[in-house]
Design a protein that fits this description.
The chain contains ten helices and twelve strands. By secondary structure, the chain is of the alpha+beta class.
Length: 273
């Protein structure tokens, strides 16, 4: 269990940033994983009063504050319209409602956890991370950066929503950590697929340029799924072997692609098929 010596509710982002530069201090998110650590924290920094808990439409797209909870993401109508239900599918299986009421977007993205449904979906959607000092960084680049003491303030989703988005995951039980995750976004000029819980952090599939901007037939869907299975590195842990995860990469990628093109047709998709 974590030990905290002092607590400070920051009045401004600058105050939070300055406090966070001290090695013994830590920012607070939802306190769900942090409280399980055995760290000794000098000052816990609370940014809950800085207005970072909103989901807003701007001229650049959808802007989600770092303190937005996973439950807000699950229920927000703007996000459901933008992602065609993929947000609800991605976060709605994470532990339980009580957990999702506390877990924050900023904490999920900063952690870059190897089991993260959140990172997988936002990667496929070409999100940008807004950092207090560094500014805007594409999530695909941020995911590869070392941990530092800058503060995530928002995530930005492009103004032009994808034509279709689909999210798939495999779990041993409904609310367990995922064995594998897959998100697919079809745009007018791009096809993006992210695979996570490999059991490493999510990554974007490369080599999809020739499939962009057009409808795919079943042969091409299987071709992409096979490409994913042969290029995405997987590993073993207590939930599953590397070989099984590689099999799931092919299965879930194919299913996510089929979901996307059914949605393009306006037919919907069965999330459990």
């Amino acid at each position: 269990m974590i030990g905290i010596r002092d607590y400070k509710r920051a009045a401004t982002l600058e105050e939070a940033y300055q406090l966070n530069q001290k090695r013994g201090n830590r920012l607070l998110g939802g306190m769900l994983w942090l409280k399980l650590s055995r760290n000794s924290v000098q000052t816990a920094i609370d940014i809950g009063g800085l207005g970072l808990d909103k989901i807003e439409e701007t001229n650049e797209g959808l802007r989600l504050g770092a303190m937005v909870t996973l439950r807000q993401i699950e229920l927000d109508e703007k996000l459901q319209t933008y992602g065609g239900g993929a947000f609800r599918e991605a976060v709605g299986r994470i532990v339980g409602v009580q957990f999702r009421n506390l877990a924050t977007l900023g904490g999920s993205i900063y952690g870059r956890f190897g089991f993260s449904d959140v990172l997988t979906l936002f990667l496929a959607l070409d999100a940008e991370v807004c950092l207090y000092k560094r500014g805007r960084v594409p999530l695909r680049d941020y995911a590869a950066l070392p941990y530092d003491r800058d503060i995530i303030t928002h995530l930005l989703l492009p103004k032009a929503a994808p034509l279709a988005v689909a999210y798939r995951s495999a779990r041993l039980t409904k609310t367990d950590f995922p064995l594998l995750t897959c998100a697919c976004a079809v745009k007018s000029d791009a096809l993006q697929i992210a695979v996570g819980a490999r059991p490493g952090k999510a990554l974007l599939l490369s080599g999809l340029e020739k499939y962009a901007g057009r409808r795919l037939d079943e042969e091409e869907i299987e071709e992409i799924a096979h490409h994913a299975a042969t290029t995405v590195p997987t590993g073993s842990n207590t939930r599953g072997s590397a070989a099984y995860r590689t099999h799931l990469v092919q299965v879930l990628c194919a299913r996510a692609l089929r979901d996307c093109f059914r949605k393009e047709d306006g037919c919907g998709a069965d999330a459990d098929s």
